[in-house]
Amino acid sequence: MRRFFKLSAVAIVMILLTVVIAYPGKGQDATPPRIVPGPWGDIVDPVTPPIFESEADRITFYRRQQMRAISSHFRSLEGIIEYDAPFQAQAMQHIEALNAIAQHLQQLFPPGTAANDGETGARPLIWQEPEKFAQHIQGFQNSVIALQKTLCYTTPSDASEALTAVRHQCLACHQSYRVR
Ligand code: HEC
């Protein structure tokens, strides 16, 4: 009987070892940090390279970076238009960047890239009602172009309403299609 327990314990340890070796760091950052050489010396990048397990992971990574870029340009415009940051001359650059990303937004949502159940990200509803989702993208593009036109003819402090129209499009799309 004792021998049986001993053998079972050995078997369990071996199974655990196999799992650990087969799936190193699954679900966590197991890649080594990047050493970045250059004129300022060898610097360790605090951001370790992510692990991609599928093409959907790669697409989602890129899509989220693009959303962050959208967010940064939007927030920069907010700084200029709503909070009077003295960079009026740069407003158009942010609009142009927003415009460029808005034009390829549709491509960032290929089928098969919904968030897994219980995780944050893109809702499956996007692919269940593609026409409505396309209308949201169109609405966002239109609002950015309207803001651009407003900024051509007025000062940033008069563009508050047009900025709110863009903000509405962000929030409306997130309300229906993003899990937070
Ligand atoms: C047509 C729909 C749509 C529009 C318009 C839109 N978003 Fe998003 N956004 C999404 C979806 C869907 C996600 C989730 C994507 C994912 O996690 O794969 C997302 C994610 C994000 C994220 C999180 C990124 C991350 O790192 O997880 C931010 C920030 C964001 N959006 C900001 C904005 C801002 C700001 C605007 C407007 C200026 C905007 N979005 C317009 C659909 C939209």
Could you name the ranges where pLDDT drops below 50 across 5 or more consecutive residues? Answer: 12-28
Give the distinct bound molecules.
heme C
Domain tally: 2
CATH superfamily of the largest domain: Cytochrome c/b562
CATH topology of the largest domain: Four Helix Bundle (Hemerythrin (Met), subunit A)
What is the overall pLDDT average? 89
The major pleated sheet works out as: 2 strands, antiparallel
* CATH class placement of the largest domain: Mainly Alpha
How large is the radius of gyration? 24 Å
Residue share in helix: 55-70%
Residue fraction in strands: 5-15%
Q: Which class best fits the helix and strand makeup?
A: mainly alpha
Principal-axes geometry comes out as: flat
Based on the coordinates given, report the CATH architecture of the largest domain. Up-down Bundle
Order of helices and strands: HEEHHEHHHE
Mind explaining what this structure looks like?
- It holds the Pfam family Cytochrom_C_2.
- With 180 residues, the protein is mainly alpha-helical.
- It has 2 domains: 2-45, no CATH class; 55-179, Up-down Bundle (Four Helix Bundle (Hemerythrin (Met), subunit A)).
- Helices cover 59% and strands 6% of the residues.
- Strands 1-2 form a two-stranded antiparallel sheet. Strands 3-4 form a two-stranded antiparallel ribbon.
- Strand 1 and strand 2 form a beta hairpin.
- Helix 3 runs antiparallel to helix 5 and helix 5 runs antiparallel to helix 6 (160-177).
- The chain starts with a helix and ends with a strand.
- The model is unreliable at 12-28 (pLDDT under 50).
- The structure holds heme C.
- Residues 60, 63-64, 67-68, 70-71, 74, 105, 121-122, 136-137, 140, 166, 169-170, 173-174, 177-178 line the site of heme C (HEC).
